Amino acid sequence: MPLPAGSPAAETTLQGLSDAEAARRLKEAGPNELPHGESRSPLATALGVLGEPMILLLLIAGTVYLVLGDRTEAIILLASIGLIVVIDLYQERRTERALEALRDLASPRALVLREGRSLRIPGREVVPGDLMVLSEGDRVAADATLLTATNVQVDESLLTGESIPVAKSASAPGAAADRADSAVFAGTVVTRGQGLALVTATGAGTEMGRIGRAMHGLRPERTRLQDETARVVRFIAIGAISLCVVIAVGTAIRRGSVTDGLLAGISVAMALIPEEFPIVLTVFLALGAWRIARRNVLARRIPAIEALGTVTVLCADKTGTLTENRMAVVRIATKSGVHDVSDGALPAELAPLVRTASLASESEPADPMERAINALAGRQDGPATDPGDRVRVYPLSERLLVVAHAWRSGDGAINVAGKGAPEAVMRLCGLDERSVRAMTVTTEQLAADGLRVLGVAHAEAADAGALPDELSAFHWAFDGLIALADPLRAAVPAAVEECHRAGIRVVMLTGDYPATARAIAKQAGIAPLDPVLTGTEITTLDDDALRHQVRDVAVFARVRPEQKLRLVRALQANGEIVAMTGDGVNDAPALKAAEVGIAMGQRGTDVAREAAAVVLADDNFASIVGAVRLGRRIFDNLRRAMAFLLAVHVPIAGLALLPLLVDWPLILTPVHIVFLELVIDPVCSIGFESEPEEPNVMRRPPRSRSEPLFDRRTVALSLAQGLGVLAAAGGVLAVARWQDLGFEEGRTLAFTTLVVASIGIIFANRAGGASMLASIRVPNRTLRLIVALGALLLLAVLAIEPARALFAFTPLDLRAAIMIAVASTAALLWLGLLRRLGRRAVRVLSSQPRSRGEAA
Description:
The protein is 51% helix and 15% strand. The chain is of the alpha+beta class.
């Protein structure tokens, strides 16, 4: 057809653009996306960091030291602000890179023709002049004009507010490109049919761009962990600030010095305010989503990362998820018997049946089943017969699981080819009871081998103008059965077994014949002895009865997409946390209702992907299990990081408060606390995030969805760890005072003991092993590097005279080293004992039987 002269599409052919031309137009027109907020510049990030409470306290402390004339201390504190900004910039940039990668993966996809090839590309790479292939469930990536259209209906409610789908038709040759009935617009959804569309506008030039429906203003969804962490930080911060004000005023009055009071208050505030908590959480969730994406699982919504570790039931589609979605016709059954057609030329007597099945399929299908049928049709000897023109398509419906195409031959005769569920095709053909019984036995035998079975039939009509609306109005002739093999993915049995060990039920949903479903379930290891519940049986059950049935059934056959929502609700009514896979338009409600909706990335519709919290890039069941494993690991490591933060703040706060209670000089001044903060932040946000998973991560039941990050056990253990380290550091300080050692020597002993014992807290909260020594051997190069750098910094401070003078330390002699070693060893033994007791408590709690509801 002629294309609008002078338009960017004018040079497009029905083969699509060349790769080079598409690249040129992308550079010229820009990405196909609406304007969105830019990421923060380094300067904006730095200014944001300068507004944080810890930085403000450092600025105040540095200013106080300048007023006092202590320029060295002031310069160090102000320089430390620059170092903290650099660390925060690194962490934010790393988080931003992870989020950018996720945004690229989350970009809506479009199927386009380029140089005659079908390519699935990110929607942002669509250019004017591209040929888009549109199918039911696709979200249109750009404004376009339909060149071909088969029963196309489009939901334009995003633009018009009208919920009724609009019928579309192909643009006639020479017609205006902007005709309303042939135009499709970016952001709208194809609810029915398929077509080929020529892109006329992208990005801000689309109808959506012109009316300003930009989406970048939407605020990201907050997670339960973010809310919980914010509450904890707010509670501690309010208490810390109140205490600091009291201490600052009290110290100023007791010592008669406003400066001493101000420094005391600042030191205690720096020690108590847990500003790392939200930073650590943000880094963990962003990098966690990035890690999961590397396993071919895209978390579209951050709360899904939390929910992955709580899943108790995993509902998976059979085709393409458990199987390879790589179909091949292997057997054909007719009245003369069952024929093996897995290789070689197609026998002549089977050619009419295969031709009929091919005519009931698309000529260039995306469905692997139809591709397999067309491939078999291509193996017949002799030239292909021209079928004529396709005049009507009868799509699959809820009432009749049959699809049919009507063709008009050269002499005007109408031939109708149909294929679908064997029982539906046999009913449509009106077979006698004996024939139905014989073909049902054959269907069962084929299905028992795990084959997908389709019935094939044909009909004729005299006049295209008199075609009925219902397939039942034709006089059908039954041709036979086609059986297709779709191999089980090799990794599925092991993944299913891993789910069972992890306390996760695996449920299989399929539209296939019950015997096929049972055979595949047996191969996969999914409850092979359980009964199979069909969609027809589900229809007869009320919600209460269905809720009881789903407790004992793990295989559902002949399930229609809209029935998935009922199954999700029934499982949730039993206290289950449900992960549900889906790919079609009608799967969207179930994906939205499930705690973790999982859309197929390769064969899924845009509607399904947008309804889901997770997108499976490779449609592989094993990837889902890998994501659950990572979800559990992320939560475990986050809890360890938070436990460390809570524990290490106890001795820091204790040493900051102790001198004020007994009227000693300050043990920890702002410069000491800055040193500790520079070690703590990287350890928590980077070191613990890199921790490997627990050996038993998939051998324990799912955690309760209501289980808090700061549960009583975690808080109690962290406080006990922190008090142990405080006792060790305070103990050497008390001994130093008892032996009349100088205050600076006592400070050196206490600070060194604090740092060494805090490193012990790190290993006490690590994964793997029942002992501290076993924990040290667990590999984590990032964490070891950070700990080594922290140890080197401490040695430098103790060994280099200017640094030692800055921290008001004294050189360590043998007696001091022995005291530090004894105190640190005592602290490490205490931490090791707590670790062993804590792990024993976890084993006891994990061995306690829990109901499904409690496990949820």
